[in-house]
Amino acid sequence: MKSALLRIVRLLGGRAITRCINALVRRVAAFTHWLQFQVEWGMEPAPEWFDHFLDQYYVWPSTRTPLWLER
Predict the structure, then answer these.
(1) Residue 8 CB partners (closer than 8 Å, separation 6+)
(2) CA-CA distance, 32 to 55, in Å (whole number)?
(3) Cα(41)–Cα(25) distance, rounded to whole angstroms?
(4) Torsions phi, psi of 4, nearest 5?
(5) d(Cα 54, Cα 52) in Å, to the nearest integer?
(6) Pair 32, 39: CB distance under 8 Å
(7) Pick from 26, 23, 18, 20: which is nearest to 60 by CA?
(8) Each residue of 23-60: pLDDT tens digit?
(9) 37 exposed, middle or buried (CB, 10 Å; 0-12, 13-18, 19+)?
(10) What is the pLDDT of residue 35?
């Protein structure tokens, strides 16, 4: 199964197709983490703790500020 999938990916363009897919996945992850942030922190009651995956997938790519790692 694994080798068949690799053959198909190579036929479709190999590196280029996987890079495009991964870029799309990163954009989807950033959007869904932004949406989670808006839902959790944009209305009452606010959560008791902050989900740092929001930093990793939403804040970090846009700001490149490592403050959440330094806490």
Answers:
(1) none
(2) 12
(3) 24
(4) -65, -40
(5) 5
(6) no
(7) 26
(8) 999 999 999 999 999 999 998 998 898 888 888 888 87
(9) middle
(10) 94
DSSP string covering the chain: -HHHHHHHHHHHTTHHHHHHHHHHHHHHHHHHHHHHHHHHHSSSSPPSS--HHHIIIIIHHHH--THHHH-
Single-letter amino acid, residue 56: Q
Residue for token digits 């590196």? 15
For residues 28, 41, 51 and 36, what is the CA-based torsion angle, rounded to 10 degrees? -20
Return the ∠ at Cα 48 (arms to 43 and 52), rounded to 5°. Answer: 90
